[in-house]
């Protein structure tokens, strides 16, 4: 049961992916829990290196910081659905899941003009009813190949952890917010990204959105 709920390759509760093709030196850098007041700092780093990422945003944070959400979209990055209220989904029923994810879709679409195609469950926890909800909202689930534990590690440890686990097609998970907190301290994440992006580029990896990683011809 634990693997079905949180296993990165599990599709028990809904279709989900956790990595892209292994035949190209491409990876997807992803960020959860945003936008936050520090999201523009991450955007500046990505722009400096000319790379794109996918931001799985919480609808409540989008409503709180609409300008930051629009800045992500305007910079050419991809926006995914990370729920509206960042709940632990295993404590809720089908109706709550549907309404919370739909509310996030609406918030993101209203503020950015884009409707997410990808969904990442808060805490990586999938649950009963998720398959029907994703089908209803035309969302596909995304997990990760490696996660930075950037809510508790320092910048160097985060970067080293991800570099050691990267490989062709990897989906890397970091956080530009901390759940629904206002003005969260994501300094370690920002500094880790500052180190990580040039390291990946120097190793010959390209950084792309989840969509471009999984569907390179689109």
Give structural notes.
- By secondary structure, the protein is an alpha/beta fold.
- It has one domain: TIM Barrel (Alpha-Beta Barrel), CATH 3.20.20.
- It contains 9 helices and 9 strands.
- α6 links the parallel β5 (118-119) and β6 (140-142).
- α2 packs parallel to α8 (187-202) and α5 (94-112) runs parallel beside α6.
- The longest helix has 19 residues, at 94-112.
Number of domains: 1
Write the element-wise H/E pattern from the N-terminal end onward: HEEHEHHEHEHEEHEHEH
Strand content: 15-25%
CATH superfamily: Glycoside hydrolase/deacetylase
Number of strands: 9
Question: Can you give the helix content as a percent range?
Answer: 40-55%
Uncertain spans:
none
What name does the CATH topology carry? TIM Barrel
Average pLDDT, all residues: 94
Any idea what the shape is?
globular
Please name the CATH architecture. Answer: Alpha-Beta Barrel
User: How much is the radius of gyration in Å?
Assistant: 16 Å
Category by helix and strand content:
alpha/beta
Identify the CATH class: Alpha Beta
Descriptors:
single chain; 218 residues; TIM Barrel; 6-stranded parallel β-sheet; 9 helices; 9 strands
Give a topology summary.
Blueprint: H1 2-6, E1 16-17, E2 26-34, H2 39-49, E3 54-57, H3 59-64, H4 66-74, E4 78-81, H5 94-112, E5 118-119, H6 130-137, E6 140-142, E7 146-147, H7 155-165, E8 171-175, H8 187-202, E9 206-208, H9 210-214
Parallel strand pairs: 1-6, 2-3, 2-8, 2-9, 3-4, 5-6, 7-8
């Amino acid at each position: 049961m634990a693997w079905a709920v949180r296993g990165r390759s599990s599709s028990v509760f809904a279709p989900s992916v956790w990595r892209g093709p292994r035949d190209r030196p491409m990876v997807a850098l992803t960020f959860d829990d945003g936008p936050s007041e520090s999201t523009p700092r991450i955007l500046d780093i990505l722009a400096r290196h000319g790379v794109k990422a996918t931001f799985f945003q919480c609808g409540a944070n989008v409503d709180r910081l609409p300008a930051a959400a629009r800045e992500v979209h305007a910079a050419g990055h991809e926006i995914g659905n990370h729920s509206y209220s960042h709940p632990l989904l295993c404590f809720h029923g089908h109706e709550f899941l549907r309404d919370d994810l739909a509310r996030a879709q609406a918030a993101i679409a209203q503020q950015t003009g884009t409707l997410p195609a990808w969904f990442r469950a808060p805490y990586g926890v999938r649950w009963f009813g998720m398959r029907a909800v994703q089908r209803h909202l035309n969302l596909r689930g995304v997990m990760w190949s490696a996660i930075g534990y950037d809510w508790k590690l320092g910048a160097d440890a985060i970067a080293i952890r991800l570099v050691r686990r990267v490989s062709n097609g990897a989906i890397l998970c970091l956080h530009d917010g901390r759940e629904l907190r206002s003005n969260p301290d994501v300094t370690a994440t920002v500094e880790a990204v500052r180190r990580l992006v040039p390291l990946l580029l120097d190793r010959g990896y390209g950084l792309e959105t989840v969509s471009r990683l999984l569907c390179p011809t689109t």
